[in-house]
Design brief:
Blueprint lengths: L5 E2 L4 E2 L13 H12 L4 H31 L3 E5 L5 E4 L1 H7 L3 H5 L14 H11 L8 E8 L5 E13 L2 E10 L1 H71 L8 H12 L1 H32 L8 E3 L1 H11 L1 H4 L4 E5 L7 E3 L1 H21 L8 E9 L2 E8 L14
Parallel strand pairs: 9-11
Antiparallel strand pairs: 1-2, 3-4, 3-7, 5-6, 6-7, 8-10, 11-12
């Protein structure tokens, strides 16, 4: 019996030539079959052994297919990298994330998936993995910037873990695109910032409400005292006029020089000017303190904590308060006129929110007039409310530069 043939009960069987083998993975199975045939087993036994080998090959292929299916269903990219940084294998997600084919990845190094290649993340991770000798922690993790084959970059979370395949030390790279998470974190930070600003505004509102209350008390008695002085001045003025007439009428019966001296004192005191100007001064003071009281009341109502539910609201009063509060924003830019419907019904709304909307619209109107280059005498803001059955119409118009089509209103 030669080394190239096997004698059986029926005939000589020539084993297949190794050149006919289709894949390197089948070579071990072929050698095993050839070895079995060289043993000279009976035909039925040899056939049974070959059938078992084929069954084992089938189970092996099915196991590989199952494993590949599992790996390809994982959303994270998985790379198997050898000790020198060459990619040996990968799953479908790795190809999708890096926008490269499996063949391309198998021809490149792992460094190409990192933007930072001078001081690569891979080297730092590998150094930490290699230096871990306790066996408790066998992987290391970091967040960095990845790069796809088309040059696009993306934030990446990557874990590198030592692995052993066929007796050789390799490294398992498990990575994912964390763009959505980063955007969510940025949105969260933005919301946190907006919340902090809202809390500051709320605190300022409470403070403004307290200050308004403190101002309201002294302004109240100042207003009452000014009104008392204004009302009392009329009586004193009439009494003084009557006294002057009496002195004039009986001037000849007075001691010598008395009336002359009194007349000189009136001229020195400029009594005529005082009698004319004191009523104007007290009235101006009353007007001023009434304006202070109006501002204080508007601030109290504007800064009042809003309800979590809609409440019936007088929109005319809301607008009046906002006009007072925002006066310093528009008085240097335009004239503001009001045209409020006195029959306007109360409507349910969130007071704080509607306050902010009206404030932003009025401030934007003043800014638009400034942008248009109009003088304060030329600028005009008109606010009008109209009842429409069970609805109301609020119109805030200005003769400023206007809003470009499709452009959102600033601050609104």
């Amino acid at each position: 019996m030669s080394a190239s043939t096997v004698q059986t009960n029926s005939a000589f069987v020539t084993p297949p030539d190794p050149k006919d083998i289709l894949t390197p993975a089948d070579k071990a199975d072929f050698d095993l079959i050839a070895a079995v045939r060289e043993l000279g087993l009976p035909t039925d036994q040899a056939a049974r052994v070959e059938m078992l080998i084929e069954a084992q090959k089938k189970r092996h292929r099915e196991s590989e297919q199952r494993l590949q299916t599992i790996l390809d269903s994982v959303v994270e990219g998985i790379l198997i990298v050898d000790g020198v940084g060459r990619i040996q294998d990968c799953n479908k997600s790795a190809c999708d994330l890096l926008r490269a084919s499996r063949q391309h990845l198998s021809q490149t190094g792992a460094d190409e998936m990192f933007i930072d290649r001078k001081n690569t993340v891979r080297h730092r991770l590998l150094n930490r993995c290699i230096n871990i000798s306790s066996g408790v922690l066998r992987y290391d993790y970091t967040e960095t910037m990845g790069q796809r084959r088309d040059g696009d970059s993306f934030p990446m979370e990557v874990i590198v873990s030592p692995a052993h395949f066929m007796g050789e030390t390799s490294f398992l790279y498990i990575f994912r695109d964390i763009t959505r998470r980063k955007k969510a974190e940025e949105s969260h930070k933005k919301l946190e910032g907006e919340l902090r600003e809202a809390q500051k505004l709320e605190a300022i509102g409470h403070l403004a409400g307290g200050i308004a209350h403190e101002i309201n008390t002294p302004s109240q008695y100042i207003r009452d005292n000014l009104k008392f002085l204004n009302d009392s001045y009329g009586s004193l003025s009439r009494l003084l006029g009557s006294a002057l007439q009496t002195l004039w009428k009986h001037r000849d019966s007075l001691p010598d020089g008395t009336f002359h001296e009194f007349s000189k004192q009136m001229r020195d005191a400029d009594l005529e000017f005082l009698l004319d100007e004191i009523p104007h001064a007290t009235q101006q003071s009353l007007d001023g303190i009434n304006q202070v009281a109006r501002i204080v009341l508007s601030m109290k109502e504007f800064s009042h904590p809003g309800s979590s539910e809609k409440t019936a609201t007088d929109i005319n009063r809301i607008l009046s308060n906002v006009i007072v509060i925002s006066r310093n924003e528009w008085k240097h830019s335009a004239r503001l006129t009001e045209e409020f419907d006195p029959e306007l019904p109360h409507i349910p709304c969130f007071i704080n929110e509607i306050n902010q909307v009206f404030l932003n619209l009025i401030v934007n109107a003043a800014q638009a007039i400034e942008t248009a280059g109009r003088s304060p005498d030329e600028g005009h803001i008109h606010i009008k409310t109209t009842a429409l059955d069970d609805q109301i119409l609020v119109s805030i118009t200005d003769n400023g530069s206007g809003i470009a089509k499709g452009k959102p209103i600033k601050n609104l």
